[in-house]
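so my prof wants the structure for this chain in the tokens format not the other one, which i didnt know existed until like an hour ago. anyway here's the sequence
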Amino acid sequence: MVGKLTKRLVESIAPTEKDSFVWDTEIAGFGLKVTPAGKRVYVLQTRINGRLKRLTIGEHGPITCEQARSETAKLRGAIAGGDDPAAVKAAVKQAPTLSVIAERYLAEHAALKKKPRSQHEDRRMLNSLILPRLGSRKVDALNRGDVAKLHYSLRETPYQANRALALLSKMLNLAERWGLRPDGSNPCRHVEKYKETKRERYLSGDELARLGQALSEAEQTGTVDPRAIACFRLLLFTGCRLSEILSLKWSDAALETASLHLEDSKTGARTVYLNTPALEVLANIPRIQGNPYVIPGDRPNAHLVNVQKGWKKVTEAAKLRNLRLHDLRHSHASIAAAAGLSLPIIGRLLGHREVATSARYAHLAADPVRAASEEVGRRLAEALSRPGRNKVVPLQRKE
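here's what i got, hopefully its the right format
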């Protein structure tokens, strides 16, 4: 029997009293043996040194039809090149699984080149998203179909799906560098990422007033930990990331020069210049002897670790729905943009490495110019509509 071997065909063949064979029409010698007991085994029948031999590729189930087809193509190529097929098959069996590659990636790449938080996130994605699906697979047997299936299974969370794809791609690039896959064989190529809708939430003037009132009331009533309240205010006044404020030490704060010196921010070492409200917040935070952190935790020599509970109380009191702590950073930037500051300056305030990262605030930076254009247009229109009676009054420059 002949036909293109597919999963559907393989599983439709009924066993007979003797071994039966189906030979693939696309790859010469690639076939399927079905035993009387119903076992389905992929084989390669070819001539080696003039003698016809039949090599076992693997049993259907543990390997798929496409994987068997790919492995057959490799074996045929090796045999055509004069290699010993037994040695080739032994090498295939010895190839590490993706789980082994993952541990090597974490030890030899992430541990040396990534920050602890990024290492933790990589391990989380590996353990929860990637390895449960692909961990037992041989690294050299992974194909684009496997990757596309993984990516599609995470379609409800596009951001997570794309991050998992990027992490898997990095590991497989390293597998090529380590000689465990052929160069240029990364199956993540051409798997299209999902479109991500970046969330940009900025507090309006009214919302800022409600937030301020809620913070003051929480402080007065003691319903929210004062350390958390100080953290929230510093996030808004500095535009820093949550991790930067929580890990901030008093040794990083140069109050005499109104600045913070962050040695290990997301984009590397940077200086944050402190405005007067931020300095007032810092001045009112009590220092705990023996604890170096500005926002101290409950344990000695540790910073506060969970502020989300307090943030939920504050936002509920202020009637601010779906407001994340990171949105305080966006709000800091939006105020800067609305004040007419340039994107490079906004980038410096936020610690962006590239000006392009600040481009999301471009439409806000244009607001003062748009308002000025509107005022000029209004005055010109008034002058045109009442000829001889009015003259254009120049805008007065504010000192």
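also thought this was worth mentioning. The mean pLDDT is 84.
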